[in-house]
Specification:
By secondary structure, the protein is α/β, with parallel strands linked by helices. Helices cover 46% and strands 23% of the residues. The protein has one domain: Nucleotidyltransferase, domain 5. The two termini are 12 Å apart.
Length: 138
């Protein structure tokens, strides 16, 4: 089973993809969208078709106390938009601190600040997807 991982930001969408067995997540790309969510849904549909994706894992930003704020509501709405056009499941995965973890990993790898900005969202999507994959019952 192949999964697509998504980290929805206000200007970019980080994208990751699992292997065909659904065990390992890998960074794929970052899509700039400038809040053009209809176009972004179409971009995700194209990726689902291109890579024969069976399910989507969308990052779900929660506040540190577990409540849902405006960014969490944005993810809920994006999930509904995807479900309206796709016939595959879309799962929400708690993404608290995923971007910080991605940034820390890139710093540890001596990636320059300029280069980090280009890939941090797709690395965060990879962390979100891998967390989901690791948490499933085998």
């Amino acid at each position: 089973m192949r999964y697509l991982g998504l980290d929805l930001g206000s200007r970019t969408l980080g994208v990751s993809l699992s292997d065909k067995t659904g065990l390992i997540a890998c960074s794929l790309k970052t899509i700039k969208h400038e809040e053009e969510y209809d176009r972004l849904v179409n971009d995700v549909v194209s990726l689902v078709n291109e890579f024969s994706v069976d399910a989507i894992v969308l990052g779900y930003p929660k506040n540190m106390n577990g409540t849902i704020g405006p960014k969490g509501e944005l993810s809920e709405n994006f999930k509904k938009s995807l479900e309206n056009v796709l016939e595959i499941p879309v799962y929400l995965q708690d993404e608290r601190l995923s971007t910080k973890s991605a940034t820390d990993m890139l710093i540890q790898g001596n990636v320059s600040r300029k280069d980090r900005k280009k890939v941090v969202d797709s690395v965060a999507a990879t962390i979100i997807l891998q967390t989901f994959l690791d948490g499933r019952e085998k």
